[in-house]
């Protein structure tokens, strides 16, 4: 196999981002080489850049949301997959440990996340396990296919929460995680009412555009006043601040379910009584457990609108500028796409 040179976005160490050109390592058994077409920037890329991700080892090619064409495979028996346009599941698991055996590879005891623990997709080429490469949905334009991964976060969480049309859902945070959750709750699960709360007015406008029935700004006025006694039955914390759980427990209906996505190391303070008196269920969700086929199906059926999330497009060459845009322009930016073509 010939080695290819690849231009990549590398975090050398905390706060040091470089565009480098290097040989891509040779393929290992089970792997495929992806000629990356498009990628999208996520909050966790920013955390790795600034040294706030405890799992990242440096130097690291970042990027876990990407799609591209299978360019080469290690096993001759898989040659038929060369040329396929695919989306990449970043979860690499052992297949043998307890969580893997019960179908939860996303919390594998030796979990490796592409773009975090191993090199990722902000690059012209990336080596990934072939089994992590799924045929991309054909119903949307190729540039939207890197957005399958963010929807798998909502798919994983809603698999725990089991939303129904009877629910009144409250979502904290109108960033990418909150907005994918809005679309999934409204369009996949037909949830009757979806409320979104955020502190940035421009983001709340986007939440409405993505299908939220009510939006509240809790910068000046506390959420409980906005709700005026209405009790949501399902709460998703996509803002990920440790103070949110206690408020959610207060405002939620008895028999409600709460979904947490945050990774803060600060404690959340709730009493047993506040949970047990309402018999609340709390679920946590990390990455996704084999949810790519389900989300690809949602794309194919037009149940989600990934185009509504895209606000900015940059070339790989301008990746640092793109990362700044995502980080600084929180009012106006949602998903920022990177295109790898020269
Ligand atoms: Zn992400
Ligand atoms: Zn495992």
Describe this structure in words.
The protein has 342 residues and is an alpha/beta fold. The chain has two domains: 167 residues, Quinone Oxidoreductase, Chain A, domain 1; 133 residues, Rossmann fold (3-Layer(aba) Sandwich), CATH 3.40.50.720. The chain is built from ten helices and 18 strands. Strands 3, 5, 6, 9, 10, 17 and 18 form a seven-stranded mixed beta sheet that branches. A six-stranded parallel beta sheet has the order 13-12-11-14-15-16, with helices on both faces. A three-stranded antiparallel beta sheet has the order 2-1-4, with no helix packed on it. Helix 3 packs across helix 4. The mean pLDDT is 97. One zinc ion binds next to helix 2.
List the helices and strands and how they pair.
Layout: E1 5-13, E2 16-23, E3 31-40, H1 43-49, E4 60-61, E5 66-73, E6 85-88, E7 91-92, H2 98-101, E8 112-113, E9 125-129, E10 133-135, H3 148-161, E11 168-172, H4 176-188, E12 193-198, H5 201-209, E13 214-217, H6 223-227, E14 234-237, H7 244-251, E15 257-260, H8 272-276, E16 281-284, H9 292-300, E17 310-315, H10 319-328, E18 335-339
Parallel strand pairs: 11-12, 11-14, 12-13, 14-15, 15-16, 17-18
Antiparallel strand pairs: 1-2, 1-4, 3-5, 3-9, 3-18, 5-6, 6-10, 7-8
One zinc ion binds at residues 93-94, 96-97, 99-100, 108-110.
Reported for the largest beta sheet, the result is:
7 strands, mixed
Percent helix range:
10-25%
Spell out the CATH superfamily of the largest domain: Medium-chain alcohol dehydrogenases, catalytic domain
Tell me the span between the first and last alpha carbons.
Answer: 24 Å
Unreliable spans are none
Note the beta-strand portion: 25-35%
What small ligands are held by the chains?
zinc ion
> Averaging pLDDT over every residue, what do you get?
97
Structural class: alpha/beta
Report the C-alpha radius of gyration, rounded. Answer: 20 Å
Write down the CATH class of the largest domain. Answer: Alpha Beta
Order of helices and strands: EEEHEEEEHEEEHEHEHEHEHEHEHEHE
The strand count comes to: 18
């Amino acid at each position: 196999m010939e080695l290819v040179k690849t231009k990549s976005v590398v975090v050398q160490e905390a706060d040091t981002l470089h565009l480098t050109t290097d040989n891509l390592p040779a393929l290992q058994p089970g792997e495929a080489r992806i000629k990356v077409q498009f990628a999208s920037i996520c909050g966790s890329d920013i955390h790795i850049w600034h040294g706030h991700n405890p799992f990242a080892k440096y130097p690291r090619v970042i990027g876990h949301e990407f799609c591209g064409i299978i360019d080469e495979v290690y096993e001759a028996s898989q040659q038929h997959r060369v040329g396929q346009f695919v989306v990449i599941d970043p979860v690499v698991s052992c297949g043998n440990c307890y969580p893997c055996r019960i179908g939860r590879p996303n919390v594998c005891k030796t979990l490796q996340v592409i773009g975090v623990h191993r090199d990722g997709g902000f690059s012209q080429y990336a080596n990934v396990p072939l089994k992590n490469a799924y045929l991309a949905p054909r119903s949307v334009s190729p540039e939207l296919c890197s957005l399958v991964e963010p929807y798998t976060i909502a798919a994983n969480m809603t698999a725990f929460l089991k939303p129904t049309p009877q629910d009144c859902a409250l979502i904290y945070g109108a960033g990418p995680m909150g907005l994918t959750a809005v679309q999934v709750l409204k369009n996949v699960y037909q949830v009757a009412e979806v409320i979104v709360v955020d502190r940035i007015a421009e983001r709340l406008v986007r939440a409405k555009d993505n299908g939220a029935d009510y939006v509240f700004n809790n910068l000046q006025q506390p959420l409980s006043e906005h709700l005026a006694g209405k009790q949501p039955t399902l709460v998703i914390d996509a803002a990920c601040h440790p103070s949110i759980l206690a408020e959610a427990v207060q405002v939620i209906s008895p028999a409600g379910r709460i979904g947490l996505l945050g990774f803060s190391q600060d404690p959340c303070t709730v009493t047993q009584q506040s949970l047990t008196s309402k018999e609340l269920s709390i679920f946590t969700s990390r990455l996704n457990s084999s949810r790519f086929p389900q989300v690809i199906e949602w794309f194919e059926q037009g149940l989600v609108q990934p185009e509504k999330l895209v606000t900015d497009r940059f070339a790989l060459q301008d990746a640092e500028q793109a990362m700044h845009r995502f980080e600084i322009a929180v009012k106006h930016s949602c998903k920022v796409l990177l295109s790898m073509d020269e």
